[in-house]
């Protein structure tokens, strides 16, 4: 029997409330968050502070924040088991981020591929927040003595930096932060764009056909999969150079639990048309109940409020303790 007295490890992860939550976010992160809820003490944050590193429309952002929280709940996360909150509701995130900025090097931040990509995309708004983004992310994680951080492949570099920052600080001031481990799923950590399968699927992609969103209508999902870019071999098999098919097999496998060999056997002698329709169908079936639940939850603002208020309260309690310890180590006079 499980020893309930034993302390569980702490797990933290976050998702930006920008654009629409995609199949990539779902398979690379959110779905695994649900699976980890029983094993770890989990904190999941809608990271609205991170969101303003690119320009946001205030009304749209407010809506997106609530919709993202509703989607996390609709995907099965439980506010009884996990702490769900908006990052801006726990001021310690911004405070610790400032401190960590002073222990993060210009050179390190310059090497971040996400910074390079985003500054190319938003050349008219390469702001200091975009540059310092990984220090805020490190603060998110380090505030809670986090041991495990479940993310997709694209966040691995940021996580390595968070580990370096923690080790650097500990090296100067003695044991302060827990050094976190990444948790990257074996399948689904890098879902590719349906239109350009060598690129990652991204919610900020201007090409609507490149991603499938959790809130897309079934017809749109089916259409996007039917249009997905593949190759001319017309054989469903996982192989180098078949990025489009590999991606579709990954999606199909992640949802059905089937291995690549099983998928190859299932579609032996059948064309891509059949396969794409099958992938579309499993995604539609996976998303339908989530979409329905999301719509219900969005109509229940009082419930959402109770979730995020309670979440922020619990998170603040933990965050305050870490920040106090950090301030003491730094030599600040106690309040
Ligand atoms: P964000 O909002 O871009 O994405 C949320 C999660 O989804 C994963 N993901 C993917 N996984 C597989 N395939 C894809 N195509 C794909 N696209 C996105 C991401 O890896 C992520 O796990 N900086 C983070 C949010 C964040 C955070 C944190 C995460 C802020 N603070 C602290 C962990 C810990 C981000 O922008 O994720």
Key terms for this structure?
single chain; 335 residues; mainly alpha; two-stranded parallel sheet; globular; binds tryptophanyl-5'AMP
Q: Tell me, briefly, the overall form.
A: globular
Gyration radius over CA: 21 Å
Report the sheet-strand fraction: 5-15%
Helix proportion of residues, in percent?
40-55%
Order of helices and strands: EHEHHEHHHHEHEHHHHH
Distinct ligands: tryptophanyl-5'AMP
Low-confidence stretches: none
- The termini sit apart by 45 Å
Question: How many helices?
Answer: 13
Characterize the biggest β-sheet. Answer: 3 strands, parallel
| Class of secondary structure makeup | mainly alpha
Mean pLDDT: 96
Strand order of the largest sheet: 1-2-3
Count of extended strands: 5
Sum this structure up briefly.
The chain is mainly alpha-helical and 335 residues long. It has helices spanning 23-36, 48-51, 58-74, 92-101, 106-110, 113-121, 128-142, 156-173, 218-226, 243-256, 260-266, 272-298, 301-330, and strands at residues 10-15, 41-46, 83-86, 148-150, 181-183.
Structure description:
This protein is mainly α and 335 residues long. It starts with 9 loop residues before the first strand and ends in a 5-residue tail after the last helix. The protein has helices at 23-36, 48-51, 58-74, 92-101, 106-110, 113-121, 128-142, 156-173, 218-226, 243-256, 260-266, 272-298, 301-330; strands spanning 10-15, 41-46, 83-86, 148-150, 181-183. Strand 4 (148-150), helix 8 and strand 5 (181-183) form a beta-alpha-beta unit. The protein has a three-stranded parallel β-sheet with strand order 1-2-3. It has a two-stranded parallel ribbon with strand order 4-5. The longest helix has 30 residues, at 301-330. The mean pLDDT is 96. It contains 13 helices and five strands. Tryptophanyl-5'AMP (TYM) binds at residues 12-16, 24-25, 28-29, 47, 50, 137, 140-141, 149, 151-152, 154-155, 189-191, 200-201. Tryptophanyl-5'AMP is lined by residues 12-16, 24-25, 28-29, 47, 50, 137, 140-141, 149, 151-152, 154-155, 189-191, 200-201.
